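Working notes for the structural subgroup meeting. M.R. asked for a predicted model of this chain before we commit to crystallization trials. I am recording the input and output together here so anyone reviewing the notebook later can reproduce the run.

Input as submitted:
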Amino acid sequence: MTRIPAAIPRRVPPILFAAIAVAYLWTLGRPSLWLDEAWEANYYAGYEAAPWYNRPMLYMALIRALVRLFGPSELVLRLLPCAAALAAIAVTYRLARRAGSRGESVLACGILALAEPFASEAHQLKYYPFDALFAAALILLFERWRTRPGAARLAAYALAAALSFGFSFASIFVVAALAAVPLVLRSLPAGWRRAHLATHAALAAVFAAVFLSFHRGGASDPMLVGYFVDAYAPWRAPWRLPLWLAQASDHLVAFQAGASSGPAAVLLVAAGGWLLWRSELRQVVAATAGALILNLAASALALYPYGVPRLSIYAAPAIAILAARAIAAAAAPGTSRVPRLAAAAALVLALFGPGAASTARRLATGFGREDIRDMVARLAAETRPGETILVNEDATTAFQFYWCRAGKRYPPEGLVVAGRFREDPARHRPEVDALAAARAPVWSLLTHLPPEESDALVAMLRARFDHVDQRVVGDARLDRWMAP
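Returned structure, recorded in token form:
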């Protein structure tokens, strides 16, 4: 199997990793919290209760501890997910190096780190980067034990797997795949079959205890199940299953790779999988495929969605490694090396260039479409008794966080929450009519809204009030209105 020559000096990977770490951390606390982030932040800061079953147990506990030590700033709240993303990049490099050159491994990490979806999750108060970290770490630790068996290495893998249940919901798919794949491939080290089975039986017991104690409510929560309704396999209508599976898988691969073309990304990853299957890392291919198959089975039972991009980020390290292997093969030495290098470079630029450029722009300006931090600070400083604050439903969690951070009691007197009427923005009219009937000054804070709904609501307010002042930041807008 030919590879890219190891022409990259040893000092280059750590320098590139340091550059990515600086870029990731540079914008970490800039944009304000948005809907789901603020929902979590209100819990960590003590402003609101939250159901534990909807986030991994140890992840929530650790962020709560950080907040108690350093305060609930956006930087502190996002620090742990960002650290997990950076660790995932480092572990992906070590995993790729087991059967690839230094250049190929750097390429895999570049695909992962510069994919806008992965970088975006690294800048949010979400647990998803831990999915990627533990998926790569578990495969790496298992492979180290499988190729050089020993009690200490098996214990290290088992400990990491047990910890993963407190930080990641998707790690169970990887652990289960690692339990089954070596049995199917008959690749277990001689004399370690019983230890392998006993270790995974113990891990199954640990997972069951964690799930039943903290997370079983999530599987039966109507809101959570209904939110991902399109991501559950339609096994009751088998004629729809092939098309659904193809679309979901195409979207999953293209999203995680940050690729501009889904079919091209799928073909590239498939080619990399075929090449890697013939090398020392066939277990990576088998474990990833096994985890996705188990995910698909859970989807059919409506236990865990399949193909939802942010819930499938555990596959991102393997997807990056497979794509890098295919590109490395295209650029491998041969009689026509210059055309091969040119073809590989063109492929990288066409498939990953647009996504990487978008990531670079967002790393320069901050990941976030809206910023309401200063808007809420102005509301806290300038609103007077008798004035109304109109906030759309999806903005209430972030508004609550910054309002409480300003030392105010939530909810404030005069708070009116505008419903979520994305399908029919005209349904806001009774809300505006009620505000106009009160003839009180109104502040409207709108964010995380489709443009057509935001524009329709503002137009209704403009028809019933005199517009006094406005501030717009990205998709967020603060307006002040007076009764005529």
